[in-house]
Amino acid sequence: MSKLLIVWMVILSVIISCGDSGADGVDGTNGTDGTDGVTGDKGADGTDGTNGVTGNNGADGLDGKDGGTGVTGDRGADGTDGSDGTDGKDGEMVGFNLIKPENNSPIASNSYVTYALAEDVKSLSFIRTRISGTGPATDTVVLTGTDVTAGFHENVVLAGTALIEDDIYNIQIEATMVDDTVVPLTPVFALTVDNSAPVLEKARAIQTVFGDTDERVSD
């Protein structure tokens, strides 16, 4: 077949295949859009309420009545007097007045002492200690009995060891109480041995209470 015949045959086939087809149906029309609803008007504002009425102030309260003058209370009863304290020990019970000898005065081997006691004691010890000389280094005379009762005791003899002329002594004095407590009393200092010295009739008193001293002149 010639090329021309083939071309015509192809063209014819195309024409045949392109024959009129049946007409298409008419498209339906679109429905009409609904109209928008109408927006309602805004309601009117409500009327403002009226202010409430302010209440009146309450009436003032009545003044309180003045209180009467209080009655002065009676004075309380006086307190009971306290009882006397218990007497102490270690010197608290002793009242001792040494009247002679006094400091820097003469003494003899048999010394004379004058003193007063405020109360009874068991004993009084006079301890003579040499501070100068060649005689006995120490000598103790203990008084008891009627010599240590409460009261005034004049020119009581201390009959001790013989002392050497011109030796010098101190005398320490101790009281032994009824309960055996030993109480140191005021000592006497610088007594020079003079075995020919007369008995002293007057001297200064040295009072001892708790180891303290106080001086007075005594006949």
Written description of the protein model:
This protein is mainly beta and 219 residues long. It has a domain at 96-218: Immunoglobulin-like. The protein is 7% helix and 33% strand. It is built from one helix and eleven strands; from the N terminus they run H-E-E-E-E-E-E-E-E-E-E-E. It starts with a helix and ends with a strand. The relative contact order is 0.18. Mean pLDDT is 74; it is low at 85-93 and 199-219.
Could you give the topology of this structure?
Elements: H1 3-17, E1 96-100, E2 106-107, E3 110-117, E4 123-132, E5 138-143, E6 151-159, E7 168-176, E8 182-184, E9 188-193, E10 203-209, E11 212-218
Parallel strand pairs: 2-9
Antiparallel strand pairs: 1-3, 1-10, 3-6, 4-5, 4-7, 7-8, 7-9, 10-11
The gyration radius over C-alpha positions equals 71 Å
What is the CATH H-level superfamily of the domain at 96-218?
A: Immunoglobulins
The 3D shape can be described as elongated
CATH topology of the domain at 96-218: Immunoglobulin-like
User: Which spans have pLDDT < 50 for at least 5 consecutive residues?
Assistant: 85-93, 199-219
Q: CATH class of the domain at 96-218, anyone?
A: Mainly Beta
Q: How many beta strands in the DSSP annotation?
A: 11
Overall mean pLDDT score? 74
- The helix/strand series, from N terminus to C terminus, equals HEEEEEEEEEEE
The percent range for helix content is under 10%
In what range is the share of β-strand residues? Answer: 25-35%
